[in-house]
Amino acid sequence: MSFWDGMWRGRSTQFESGSAATNSIELTKRNPTVSLTKQGAATGNLRINLSWRMRTSDIIGKQRSGSRLRHPFKLFQPDVVQAHTQGVVNVDLDIGCLYELMDGDKGVVQPLGSFFGALNAPPFVKLSGDDRFGSPSGETIYVNLDHRESIKRLLVFVYIYDQTPAFDRTHAKVTLYPSNGPRIEINLDERAPQARSCAVVSIENIKGELVVRREVKFVYGFQAELDRLYGWGLQWGRGYKSKAGRR
User: Fold this and answer.
1) Is the model's pLDDT at 36 over the cut of 70?
2) How far does Cα 30 stand from its chain's mean position?
3) What InterPro entries does this protein's entry cite (predicted)?
4) For the chain, which domains are there?
């Protein structure tokens, strides 16, 4: 498989995430797994959302130091801004998903190469958009769990596009919103200043049970390195985003 120039230019509004959950489950090193099946959440559309933010100190340096000296108590209040503000337009995190179906079909859903997938046909995984600015809606992948019997395994990953800050400057989070039950959160909060990609979470069909597992494995390369790490066996080539398509 190779991929080429391309990006998602629109936003999909045809999908719904199901009932909103007021509670959440955070997957950690000590508690890395949760069963969607046992949670009664293995049907409908699973929404997987990427969002991120940055500290203002990473963006504007010390230009606010004078203000902090005038208000010393602010030294204990780190400034945080959402990544869609004007100061951080150079940040470009992308979400993608490697998939393997029960019939042996393998591939990727991602912005690069316009591999947006399909929700009601194989691979039953669809990308809603490519968000360059980390807006509150972020980037979202949908998985049609009504076809769970056709899905063998999924690997959701995040990568940093060229000439953007490293993960240690970007506070990213991937949240899974099942059609029923609590949301599932995975924070990318480990220090990996030189990493370019991260395998975030896997979803595996184990004898009919859908198990979500926290991965959070950083690598210094891109999709091909994640592929080798998890044994997907795809063919990869270099991809670029169209500058004319920047929003």
Assistant:
1) yes
2) 21
3) TerD (IPR003325)
4) 24-233 (2.60.60.30)
Decide if pLDDT at 6 tops 80.
no
**Backbone φ, ψ for residue 96 (5° rounding):** -145, 175
Distance CA 109, CA 116 (A): 5
pLDDT at site 246: 34
Per residue, the 3-state secondary structure of the chain, as one string, reads: CCCCCCCCCCCCCCCCCCCCCCCEEECCCCCCEEECCCCCCCCCEEEEEEEEEEECHHHHCCCCHHHHHHCHHHHHCCCEEECCCHHHCCCCEEEEEEEEECCCCEEEEECHHHECEECCCCCCEEECCCCCCCCCCCEEEEEEHHHHHHEEEEEEEEEECCCCCCHHHCEEEEEEECCCCCEEEEEECCCCCCCCEEEEEEEEEECCEEEEEEEEEEECCCHHHHHHHHCCCCCCCCCCCCHHHCC
Report the mean per-residue pLDDT for the chain.
76
Phi, psi of 153 (to 5 degrees): -160, 150
Burial of 106 (0-12, 13-18, 19+ CB in 10 A): middle
